[in-house]
Specification:
The complex is a heterotrimer of chains A (361), B (76) and C (260). Chain A is α/β, with parallel strands linked by helices. Chain A contains 15 helices and 15 strands. Chain A folds into 2 domains: 182 residues, Rossmann fold, CATH 3.40.50.970; 112 residues, Rossmann fold. In chain A, strands 3-2-4-5-7-6-13 form a 7-stranded mixed β-sheet, sandwiched between helices. In chain A, strands 10-12-11-14-15 form a 5-stranded mixed β-sheet, sandwiched between helices. In chain A, strands 1-8 form a two-stranded antiparallel ribbon. In chain A, strand 6, helix 8 and strand 7 form a beta-alpha-beta unit. The radius of gyration of chain A is 21 Å and the shape is globular. Chain B has one domain: 2-Layer Sandwich (Alpha-Beta Plaits). In chain B, the strands form 2 sheets. In chain B, strands 1-4 form a two-stranded antiparallel ribbon. In chain B, strands 2-3 form a two-stranded antiparallel ribbon. Classes of the chains: A alpha/beta (361), B mainly beta (76), C alpha/beta (260). At the B-C interface, strand 1, helix 1 and strand 4 of B face helix 1, strand 1, helix 2, helix 9 and helix 11 of C. Strand 4 of chain B pairs antiparallel with strand 1 of chain C.
């Protein structure tokens, strides 16, 4: 029976990871996500489930610890915030190339540089356009509530192991720090060594059991023909992700004349804008991407048949707006609105922007 | 009086002619052949095979693991 | 007595370990990496622990170690092998986990990972091949390059005034309580190989004691980087590297070996 609690987003995510039977977490302090490792240390999950929790000497070390443990078939995750995620990009690219299932959580803060500790969505490009080097993409889940911070941990691992790929949970300081009620699932047992030996015998490096051939975790292919095959294999997965695991939500879009596209905290705020607009007789709907990759391209194109304009609302200077434009191929005007630098836009500001940029303009 | 004699077998294609085995051979048996393998390396061989005692020094130092060593006792 | 009579299975006394694949080694002729690989795999074979051993290869000449070592291996980002190994050892406490790294990997970009894995006393073995140069990328200066030693990025010889002195990382980490044993060896002669093998075997056996990390440095040659013939490089190594990187035990079972 699920358990109802009032928790911070960061803590709900950490608790959900323990309950999902995750095997290990490697992290490093950085505001606004340090509660994740603090909560894990307080809970001593090694006693509850045998889960390993270790504070590394840097984000670079932490992501490579994830690489190592995940490469043996264990369920492993890490978390950080923007500058720390920049440090992890090489490791994430390695995991994509070596086809390693693992989960990375980014609780985004304002940037660039040291920036601010206030919430932001300015890491959108880094997340979906490949923050690291080379041809790869990340499956990106964008939680918009404490409940989703909890639920997406298990969802992320399911995707990671289905596709043998790293998965990113793209949250932000607002979702990470706020408290809400959350239903937490029952404790799931961690995989036993024997289960791992059976399930992941053909790829994981836990020692050559029963005389099997050696397994190798590597992203290196010096022969270009082999490297190209490897990259195409990755992109086949990404195509399959788009086919099978796209997630989004629509609110009051059926009769909408204008659509707001927003994810995470911006989506929460924009819901209020929808109500404010409708109170003024402006039929606005909200499309909330839950996965940022795969992106709801077809759904957006479909909506162009009925809407006069789309507003992309993001806590940044306009990043997802480009993907919205690409999706609708200029069939309708697409504009952006967003405060940045850590300032949270208000429902009223969004409505005003929509009126100025789409209706009066 | 029993005497120990030995012999080595060099994998000619694996040997890279690095000569690292030469100085470790007590009776100085090994030399590089005038022949070359498919990669163009002169490969090691026993120039004075009767001197070989099968002590394995060359085998354990060979970077490419190209040397196999045999040894046996014989009555003099 | 004809050689054919000697070369018989019953007279076999040495052949290379089964745990080396048939792949031709990518290392230059006479490079110590090959010998170090053979010794390490020989230990794992003789201890019969291949079912529970995981190796972590670095970036550098031995990045391709997993093509030659017939065991489960991971290839780690440059410098990060100790972190990768840390996580494997922590999530599989009863396995044998080792890293195999060069001096650029371990003592330059990976310094923090090396020091902190040692400081946490991770239950891993670090095999550290020190040839005083970056080999794979064509012979650049490394933290371990000797004073006045030429390289492609210190063409006029390493100038300690501007690039500092060679880093004795093994002595550095030996002072950390987390390090159980630290020693320095070579593999260019049969005597050195036998000693190195004993040290590696002890390090793997000590893993079971869970008393901390063992680090084994192997001072080795780099023929192409030093621009010498293999035998000449081994002589040069003895005359130049050994005085600076003294062979022998540095720390044994938690106690530093004091050198008068």
């Amino acid at each position: 029976m699920a358990e109802l609690k009032l928790m911070k987003g960061n803590e709900a995510l950490a608790e959900a990871a323990i309950r999902a039977g995750v095997d290990a977490y490697f992290g490093y302090p950085i505001t606004p996500q340090t509660e994740i490792i603090e909560y894990l240390m307080m809970e001593q999950p090694e006693k509850r489930t045998g889960m390993v929790v270790l504070q590394a000497e840097s984000e670079v070390a932490a992501i490579n610890m994830v690489y190592g443990a995940a490469g043996t078939g264990k369920r492993v995750f890490t978390s950080s915030s923007s500058p720390g995620i920049s440090l992890k990009q090489e490791g994430i690219s390695y995991m994509a190339g070596a086809e390693i299932p693992a989960v990375v959580v980014n609780v985004v803060r304002g940037g660039p540089g040291l920036g601010t500790i206030q919430p932001s969505q300015a890491d959108y490009f880094q997340s979906v356009k490949g923050g690291g080097h080379g041809d790869y993409k990340l499956y990106v889940l964008a939680p918009a509530s404490v409940q989703e911070m909890a639920d997406f941990v298990e969802d992320a691992f399911d995707i990671a192991f289905k596709y043998m790929a790293p998965v990113l949970i793209l949250s932000d300081g607002l979702i990470g720090q706020m408290m809400e009620k959350v239903y937490l699932k029952e404790q799931k047992p961690r995989w036993t060594d024997e289960e791992i030996y059976k399930m992941h015998n053909d790829w994981a490096t836990f020692g050559r059991k029963n005389g099997r051939e050696r397994n190798i975790i590597t992203s290196l292919d010096l022969k270009s023909e082999k490297m190209e095959k490897r990259v195409h294999r990755l992109y086949k997965k990404y195509a399959q992700m788009e086919e099978e695991d796209l997630r989004y939500e629509t609110i009051q879009c059926e009769d909408a004349e204008y659509i707001i596209v927003a994810y995470g905290s911006s989506a929460r705020i924009a819901q209020k804008t929808v109500d404010l607009a409708r109170a003024k007789g402006i039929k606005v709907g909200l499309l909330r991407p839950i996965t940022l990759f795969p992106f709801p391209k077809k759904q957006l194109m479909e909506l162009t048949k009925q809407v006069k304009g789309i507003l992309s609302v993001e806590l940044n200077t306009g990043q997802m707006v480009e993907d919205v434009r690409l999706a609708v191929e200029h069939k309708v005007p697409v504009e952006h609105f967003g405060r940045t630098g850590g300032i949270i836009h208000t429902p009223e500001e969004i409505l005003e922007a929509l009126q100025q940029k789409l209706i009066k303009g | 009086m029993a005497k120990v004699i030995g012999a080595i077998v060099v994998d000619n294609e694996r040997c890279k002619g690095c000569e690292v085995c030469i100085p470790v051979c007590g009776p100085d048996v090994i030399r590089m052949s005038s022949e070359v393998n498919l990669k163009g390396y002169h490969y090691a061989y026993m120039e004075t095979p009767q001197e070989c005692t099968g002590c394995t020094n060359c085998g354990i130092v060979c970077p490419d693991g190209a040397i196999t060593v045999y040894r046996m006792k014989v009555e003099d | 007595m004809d050689i054919k009579d000697i070369i018989k299975p019953e007279n076999l006394v040495y052949k290379n370990t089964e745990l080396m694949t048939d792949n031709t080694l990518s290392y230059c002729p006479g490079c110590g990496h090959g010998t170090a690989h053979n010794v390490l795999m020989g230990v794992i074979e003789e201890m019969g622990i291949v079912e529970d051993t995981i190796g972590v290869a670095p970036v550098g000449c031995s990045v391709l170690a997993y093509e030659f070592m017939d065991i489960d291996m991971q290839q780690a980002a440059h410098g990060r092998a100790p972190a990768v190994a840390t996580a494997i050892a922590r999530t599989w406490p009863d396995k044998y986990v080792f890293t195999y790294q060069g001096d650029g990997d371990l003592a330059a970009i990976g310094t923090a990972e090396t020091i902190h894995a040692c400081n946490r006393g991770e239950n891993i073995v670090i095999i550290f091949v020190n040839n005083g140069i970056y080999g794979m990328t064509g012979g650049q200066m490394a933290p371990t390059t000797l004073p006045n030693m030429p390289s492609s990025t210190s063409p006029y010889g390493r100038d300690t005034a501007t690039t500092g002195f060679p880093l004795k990382i093994t002595e550095l980490v030996a002072n950390l309580p987390g390090v159980y044993s630290a020693s320095r060896h070579a593999v260019h002669t049969h005597k050195h190989v036998r000693k190195a093998k004993k040290a590696i075997e002890k390090a793997f056996k000590d893993t079971r004691l869970k008393k901390g990390l063992s680090i084994i440095e192997i001072v080795s040659n780099c023929n192409s980087g030093w621009k010498m013939q293999p035998r000449q490089s081994n002589t040069w190594m003895e005359e130049n590297m050994f005085p600076y990187y003294e062979l022998g035990d540095i720390k044994v079972n938690g106690k530093l070996v004091n050198k008068q």
